[in-house]
């Protein structure tokens, strides 16, 4: 008996991607009775679901951002590699390498396997578990940077560029716009790896999740609130803040601020100029063009479903490699590297 094709049991609905036999959604954008959440960014982790299944870290992040009462009426932790059967569907979570606790959802049903990757990156990151390729029949991928122009440089080289600028302008403050979940903690880790041992001043919107990372076992070194009382810390230092803060009144009280932004979109010079970014840092928590194609090849899936981003370019490139691409056009999944999250100050 042939295994059923995943398109017969995995479909899109207005709420999101739905597993029919399991009767659950993956990263639904509206409240649903049962949800599996890949990671804590708000375009994937929405409030007010009935039952929520996720890693311990993702549930902790959801509680920190939404409150205990909105992170899911029933919350169930599942560790990487642990198998759980839901109405005959075997569910396993594997690391996605995107942010702390991020996971791919592996679903096996009647000999057929689909993997929903959520968002992912392939570069080393000590603040989260690395991506694990899982062979499957259908691989659901993002396509945020699915154009050949997006080839991310070595993050260490970008940090080197930052530190050279700090040395060149010791009287100024470099203020880096970065996302509060994942990007801020990764930047701090990259700075520590480079030998930067000064306390890192943080905008208040970043402090809560940095503290949570430390509670969950990720060491970030000395951190300080970027307040007027600690103004002496700013001179010649590197301050982290939400992207929206680097050009507002908060940033103007710093010592001759150098506006920086850490994002894969900084590869596009026009975006940097439009945002008033003096020092763009091409540091992304998403896979670049080559990494997307390499990942699709590694998982050996004959069919690739694409959730958001540059679907057309990726579908064309996959066809040349013998893989069929399909755009899912899911509503509500966006790029957290551009927009500040409502209520999160990012």
Q: Can you offer a commentary on this structure?
A:
The protein is α/β, with parallel strands linked by helices and 346 residues long. The chain folds into 2 domains: 6-149 and 286-327, Ribonuclease Z/Hydroxyacylglutathione hydrolase-like (Metallo-beta-lactamase, Chain A); 155-281, Rossmann fold, CATH 3.40.50.12650. Helix content is 23%, strand content 24%. The chain contains 8 helices and 19 strands. The strands form 4 sheets. It has a 7-stranded mixed beta sheet with strand order 7-8-9-10-11-18-19, covered by helices on one side. It has a 6-stranded mixed beta sheet with strand order 1-2-3-4-5-6. It has a 4-stranded parallel beta sheet with strand order 15-12-16-17. Strand 8 (89-95) and strand 9 form a beta hairpin. The longest helix has 14 residues, at 155-168.
